[in-house]
Amino acid sequence: MFDDLRDLYQEVIFDHNRNPRNFRVMDNPDRKVEGFNPLCGDRLTLYLKMAGDTIEDASFQGSGCAISTASVSLMTEIVKGKTEAEAEALFTQFHEMTTGKDEHFNLEAIGKLAVLAGVREYPARVKCATLAWHTLDAALKNEQQSISTE
Ligand code: ZN
After folding, report:
1. Ligand 1 mean position to 53 CA, how many Å?
2. How many angstroms does the Cα of residue 77 sit away from the middle of ligand 1?
3. How far is the CA of 96 from the centre of ligand 1 (A)?
4. Nearest to 29 by CA among 57, 1, 53, 8
5. Where would I find the H helices in 1-150?
6. Quick check: 44 pLDDT over 60?
7. 42, 100 Cβ separation under 8 angstroms
8. Between vectors from CA 116 to CA 98 and to CA 45, what angle results, nearest 5°?
9. Ligand 1 centre and the CA of 75: distance in Å?
């Protein structure tokens, strides 16, 4: 990765950590799931408002490291307006990108989430980046009230 690009990616992560988007409690959410990453201590509560199978609104509360906060902030932005199937497809792509299984991830599909591709070089931080998505997965499947990465 070029240094310029790396700097840009880090700047986006810092920005989302300093000013998380959609950082609020949602009134009357259709889905509410708590996510916990005991390895790092990241905690978040994800709220979703659904319209049929489309994610109408997404927000979160919680506290965690810069990577987990930036990841959930970016995620709530990108999944708004997406259908459940589209969000699940993004989760799959994101997971493959961060675990390094897919070296040639689809940049167009993943968009801004590419700023988190660097975590694949730090296996301990992968769970920080994927916590938001595992929590979203549980919320969409509507199975659990809380999840843990361990
Ligand atoms: Zn973390």
Report:
1. 30
2. 20
3. 19
4. 57
5. 3-18, 66-79, 84-98, 107-110, 123-141
6. yes
7. no
8. 90
9. 15
What separation in Å is there between the alpha carbon of 51 and the centre of ligand 1? 31
What spacing in Å lies between the alpha carbon of 82 and ligand 1's midpoint?
Answer: 26
pTM: 0.91
- Which of 9-13, 62-66, 132-136 is least confident? 9-13
**Cα distance between residue 30 and residue 26, in whole Å:** 10
Give the residue extent of every domain in the chain: 2-148
Domain 2-148 = CATH 3.90.1010.10: yes
d(CA 95, CA 144): 20
Cα–Cα distance for residue pair 69/60, rounded to 1 Å: 10
How remote is the CA of residue 150 from the centroid of ligand 1, in Å? Answer: 13
For residue 65, the CA-to-ligand 1 centroid distance in Å is 4
126 near 15, Cβ under 8 Å?
no
d(CA 64, CA 75): 15
